[in-house]
Amino acid sequence: MSVITTRKPQLAQPAVRGRRERRIPPPTHWRRLLLALAGVLAAYASLHVLLQDVAWWFVGAGFAVLALVATTVTRLLTRRTWVPFPAAVVVTTLAVTATFAPDTAAFVFFPTFETGDRVNEILTSGWESIADQRIPAVADPGIVLLLVITVVACTLFADAVVTVAKSPALVAVPLLTLLSIPVAVRAEVADALWFVITAVVYLAILRLDRRRTSRPVLALVGAASILGGLLTPGFLPGVQEDTGPLGGGVQTGINPLINLGEDLRRGDPVIALSYQTTTDEPVYLRLGTLEQFNGRTWSPTLVPQDPEQTVAQFPQPPGLGYEVVRSELTADVSIGDIGGRWLPLPYPSVSVEGVTGGWYWEPEGLSARSPDTAVRGQQYTVTFLDVQPTLEQVGEALPFSAQDAGMPTTILPARIPDVIAETAQQIAGDLPTSYERAMALQDFFTSGEFEYSTNAPVAGNYDGTGLEVIARFLAEKSGYCVHYASAMAVMARILGIPSRVAVGFQPGEPLSAQGITNYTVTSHDLHAWPELYFDGVGWLRFEPTPGRGELPDYNYVPPVDDPATPEDEGAAPTPAATSTAGPGAERPDESDLGVPGAGGAATSANPTPFVLLGVGVLIAIALVAPAAIRTVIRLRRERSVRLGRDPAEAAWAELRDTARDHGWAAPDSETPRDFADRLAVVLSGERERIDGLRGDVEESAFAPPGRGAPTVDELRAVRRAIARSVDPRDRIRAIVLPASLLARFRWDPEG
Amino acid sequence: MNGETDLTSDSDVTARAEPMPSAEFLLDSRAVMAAVETVIDGKREAVEIATTVLLAEGHLLLEDVPGVGKTMLAKALARAVDCSVSRIQFTPDLLPADITGVSIYNQAERRFEFKPGPVFANIVIGDEINRASPKTQSALLESMEEGQVSVDGATYGLPVPFTVIATQNPIEMEGTYALPEAQRDRFMARISMGYPDAANEAAMLRNREGGSPLDVLKPVVTLERLGRMIATVRSVFVSPAVEHYAVAIAAATRVDRDLRLGASPRATLQLVRAAKARAALDGRDFVLPDDIDALAVPVLAHRLVTTRAAAGSNPLGVEALAEITARIVAATPVPLGASGPA
């Protein structure tokens, strides 16, 4: 017998393992990581509804990829599980330094103390910018840095749950965090598309588990997610586009009024500001003026700010003749809860003291704006003129002639609906002076024919400030300040009077105490009104909106005084923007119409009940989903038991899961007998039942075919016994949050 | 192949034996265990496993320090069954022929005549097997595996049933040769006796006053009935789920990071066989995963080799091996369905 072996030795030693092998992460790791990254980036993309452009996404994505590369590379170098995360933080810090504050860094990358200050500044400005801007906001460096930090944190969290905790299901946490941002800011703009994409990626992550038993669960979760994503927008009010009639101003991205509009929408007014003044007369505080009219929207004239033009000294108001009587008044203004970078000022202002930060006047409208400081919390004293023209002085002004045309305040679109021009001519075309024409227009609107309504324009679908809207408004005779201001301004131009729309606050509620009158102005006092220009006097305020504001004095005593502000600094664009918001929604608060044009519409939309309803439905789905899934699993198993398809497996798996739901440990590696013994020790009165079920399961699984098999009734009896053994709180938790479901998703490294 | 010689008249008892009813089986098996226990006090578990191995047609390795009753257990078990028993005291100068037998020239008949060695018995007690030279050890171990002995070109079948109960001292004792892995693999199970507890030790002192209890131990089972008991064990049903379970445990030992050598396929086979015997002793006609669990350590542990890191200070790593095996068993999911592992 030959004993020579022809085999190669290594073939003959299958059971011998080599020396300690390096443990290489399972191959599904990197796939899972890539999917987690994709999920985070998809969820991150859902922020697009809040921000303009797309550059911010690429920046954030770049940092997320960088962080993930850092952890992955580190993981190749070390086997300690925690090391990659500090490493990624270090890499991210270097990259942030190089990106956001390279001039403060040592060798571009290495942060110094100065870098810390700089980054802190950027972050602060980011928070302020978030508070100030309207949606969609400009992604300035502060916001981008905040986004970078958020998305890197989410990425590292996802990495940690995949590689360290080995519970890929937890990737849901960063994903939901990102997805919840748009919902938290403005639920109605949230984008279902990215929600669904994120959900699909998330399912793919779970799918990598390849555990057959979890397939139905996956299908259910998937269906629920996608359904939820598709249904959610249906529950929410239909705001999408945020551009309103006066939206032009919005594009500056700095629009306090928009935010006021948001506040107004809540229905509860917030204190916008309060002021004391030395005059008995209430004061209109303007945020800005809108001069440009393109037929669709009003927008401000914005020019680059000149550092010389600080609010410490305003120029002479344009057009105000020296012979017009005027007196200097002061007001102490204290800004409350409003955002933005426009300073509420009376017109015409002479000087402002006490503001912090750099504030500069706008040459066109003499309103004041800051490039870097928020208006919130400012306290200042403003000196302004009380202009008191005589009727004679006002009356001298004549309609402008053709050669005056071409100024921003006289331009009209080429095509004007006949009804507007005809109405204007009909009202005042025969009157000789500008002032008479202006008064006729104002009387036309306030004579009682028109009614004030924030709902009608929305309901009638003619909300806004455009020419078409004005035409409809003249026919319907119902609207709010935006419509009145826009209509009167347009008709004034038709009649040869330069005009613009001012946005700001009506005087508010006076509160007298100890001889001092304090005015409290709320978000409901947001207002828009037309200002008309008269040669020799300047800009005068008019009040065509019935029931709103204070009629200017000169209405009664014609030329006497001119409370209306002469000219303002131009850029009041912001207010206009507010209007743009939700066209579809009903307007909740009539009082505030806030801003000219679009502003009114925006404020009026009140999504709160719908948002609450939608959120409530989502929460309800989230609460019910685990119980529903668990029930489906149980019913399937009971069906298997009934039909005799692997009944032992089904019955015992159900029993184990029931035990897990109620807080027991029930490892798969425990034999039925061991587990039953353990159960019987605790459920002392139920030993017979438990052993009966256990015996049937054993016979079904291990005995020759044809022996006993578990029945559904047996199974249910034992399940009830388990449920009875815990206190009611745990029983409810077992139903609402079945622990066995989580165990199904726990990652099994064996694949 | 010439001359397969049957040297025992009743060698083939199991081949034609009929399985016996469960009740009868239980009576007989308990009688055997009770008889052994009259000699070995307080070692119920060791007695059970020894009986299990006997009924599963395996070989048993008793490993412990001298004087705890290894030989006594082996002798008692052999005495309890009415069958041929032989005992070999292994010493360093023992030769293979001292075990298997030799061919002697018969002057009268002018031919060589085979003189069977002590291995030709139903139960062979190999005392202190690790004190013999490897050459001698392997002579016994080969006959254990093949159930036959080849001497001078002739093959002689060993009696059936054939069980070797070997004892050995731990390797660190003086004058011992460790059994190689391949030979340890031939034993179905390895158990340690352990020291008796105080009460049992005291009882033993009293019992031994009047002479060895072995002397009064009478056989309780005939060879024929032993054959039927073995046939009963053979007929125990093993479900696919249990097969999967045994295979999964064996497979897990082959990839465990603390083990250099895992369980062989022979180990899996013997694990299931032993489990069948345990099931029958428990009155069942089918194997449960619990049988596998209970037998995994005695059946598998002595075949495994730890990595140096896992062995700790003990070069044989008996405790370490038992721990590792128990850990693997505790981590292996128990399949319940016919489709195998979940």
Q: Taking all residues together, what is the mean pLDDT of chain B?
A: 84
CATH topology of the largest domain in chain A: C8orf32 fold
Classify the helix fraction of chain A into a percent range: 40-55%
Question: What is the overall number of helices of chain B?
Answer: 13
Biggest sheet record of chain A:
6 strands, antiparallel
DSSP, total strands of chain B: 14
- Look at the helices and sheets of chain A and give the structural class: alpha+beta
Helix content of chain B: 40-55%
Going by CATH, the architecture of the largest domain in chain A would be Roll
CATH top level assignment of the largest domain in chain B: Alpha Beta
Give the percentage of residues in beta strands of chain B. Answer: 15-25%
Structural domain tally of chain B: 2
- What's the CATH class of the largest domain in chain A, please? Alpha Beta
- Number of self-contained structural domains of chain A: 3
Radius of gyration of chain B: 20 Å
Beta-strand percentage of chain A? Answer: 5-15%
CATH superfamily of the largest domain in chain B, by name, is: P-loop containing nucleotide triphosphate hydrolases
- Order of the strands making up the biggest sheet of chain B: 4-7-10-2-11
Structural class of chain B: alpha/beta
Per DSSP E runs of 2 or more residues, the count of β-strands of chain A stands at 17
Shape of chain B: globular
